[in-house]
Amino acid sequence: MERDALLALQMAAENFLTMLFEMANRVAIHARRVTIQPKDIALVRELWGYIKPSDPIAKLTDETINSIDLAKRRIEELKKKQRERSWQKHKELRTRGERIPNSLTHYLNGVQEVHGEYLRPTGTTYFGSGGASGPGGNKKRKT
């Protein structure tokens, strides 16, 4: 009996998560993105609340908010490390007089070194294609 209850709980949880991520994926696609972001899940949860307010998914708990904040901080840390590695690679190639790949130049477009940190100006993002003027350049793409 206990085994059946656990199996039913697992199936319900899997169905719930599958539905949540399918809906969040549709939100991301609508926003012309291919990656689900925390804001997509938050929007699905908010809209779901309008459909059935008593459903647990409609309520943002402190734990959920903390998890989202933690994920955002972790993503920013990873981005920061990637910018540092890319900036160092750029300096290394420039010092050796080697050709700097366009993708690296484009990625570093707008990144500035400030007090040992490599920062991208607020409101800009890296799109992965198109031309660039190199590190410190002034071409910015708004999100």
How would the blueprint of this fold be written?
Blueprint: H1 2-30, H2 38-51, H3 62-96, H4 102-107, E1 112-114, E2 117-119
Antiparallel strand pairs: 1-2
Describe the structure.
- The chain has 143 residues and is mostly helical.
- Helices cover 59% and strands 4% of the residues.
- It has four helices and two strands.
- It has a two-stranded antiparallel ribbon.
- Strand 1 and strand 2 form a beta hairpin.
- Helix 1 packs across helix 2 (38-51).
- The longest helix is centred in the middle third of the chain and has 35 residues, at 62-96.
- The chain is elongated and about 65 Å long.
- The model is unreliable at 126-143 (pLDDT under 50).
Average per-residue pLDDT, rounded, comes to 74
Strand content: under 5%
**Alpha carbon gyration radius:** 21 Å
Kindly state the percentage of residues in helix: 55-70%
Tell me the structural class: mainly alpha
Q: How many angstroms does the end-to-end distance come to?
A: 52 Å
What is the tally of helical segments? Answer: 4
What would you call the shape? elongated
Largest sheet: 2 strands, antiparallel
Poorly predicted parts: 126-143
Say how many strands there are: 2
Helix and strand run: HHHHEE
* Oligomeric status: single chain
Strand order of the largest sheet: 1-2
